Input
Amino acid sequence: MRRILQFIMEHRRSAALVAALFLSVSMMLMGESAKTRFARMVTTSIFNTGRFTLSWGISMLDLWRDNRRLRLENLELSYQVNLNRLTELENKRLRKMLGLKERNSFPLIAARVIGHDADRVVNSIVIDAGSRDGVRKNMACATADGLVGRVHEVYPSTSSIQLITDVNSRVSGMVVEHEAYGIVSWDGGRFLRIFGLPLINEVKAGDKVYTSGLGDVFPAGILVGTVVKLPIREVEIYASYHVSPAVDFSRVHEVFLLQGSERPGIWDDGYGAGYFTRSNQYQ
Amino acid sequence: MTILRNVLLIALALLVQSTFFGRLDLWNVRPDLGMLVLIFIAGGASTAECTLYGFLTGFLQDVYSPEYLGYNAFTMSLLGFMIGILRETLTVENYGVKTLVTFLACLVHDLVYLAFYTGLNVSLYMRLFIMGSLLGAVYTAGLAFLLIAAYEWSVGGGLRVAIRELIGIRR
Output
């Protein structure tokens, strides 16, 4: 083997010529189909290599562009999906509210919640309907879930709603199952409180509390909440119960105002309408 | 590195030949760029290398027309060998002689190639040789002359030197 290699090295010129001519003649003697197959194989290999080499940079550029475009598209679609989710939720809420409208005899004014009162003492929300839309002071405000509060302040295009979770709010309520009347108020915490219920009534957890219509502040039949606790005894003949509000006040987006529910002549000391003074003492 | 450069040069020449040079035909005669590149490469290669470069050039030309696979490879190998021998024995400096070598190389190529191509049909052989090969050799040699002149001119200082000499500035 070494001798052969040595011979080739010594006669490089001739060896190269013989090898080249031998290969050429071998190719000439190939059959037609073998020639075509071989040529196709060579061209395919060469062109594929060339194409890969040349197109690599272009492919990378295309990938970069595609990536950038898809990122933007993804961002846009995410935004669109979020909008759709919000629209879907709004749609559900409005459908529920339409249900409320059908079963309520009061003409309704629809409004959108545009803010929460900056005053931390007053628990209220701001809506985008005002006196121009027919909103009047003391109108009852509700959602499809239940009672929200009453109109506290009216401006031309906005109004402030005092929530039933405001310390100055008082609602005349009724536990329907027992026809037991009481006053619903809030004095901090998660729950409302219905007090003044006679002890003889066996109110249970899960009983519904509706507005009674007494006192002419709120019309009767609006759901206020559900009794969730056992009685809190204050005095011997009356009982108090915790009531879970029917409305999740952190998720109120649209409300209805019940036209005609307001009483223009109602006594008001400037801190809230009702039968209570500033010190919450019965008049 | 030189080998890679030469291989790429051959590939590029054939690419240009099959694309751009196809439009430079005169009476259906085209210059042989593969031949020009082989002669250029031969200027700095041994006879064995010239033979193998010749084989590569011919083989790549054959791949375009598989029916005649091996014809160009054989002819160009032989031609590469001859050019290599010539370069080892003779130093060519003159433009005219370089052009003549190109012209003769083209003729030798066609003499051998047409023998395979025509199957030694003498009348066809003569017709193709006279009508195509002679004109092709002249065309290729003329192009070689222009390219050699341009190359020498650029190596020798190019346009800047030419302008300086024209306006009389001497270094």
Confidence is low (pLDDT under 50) at residues 269-283 of chain A.
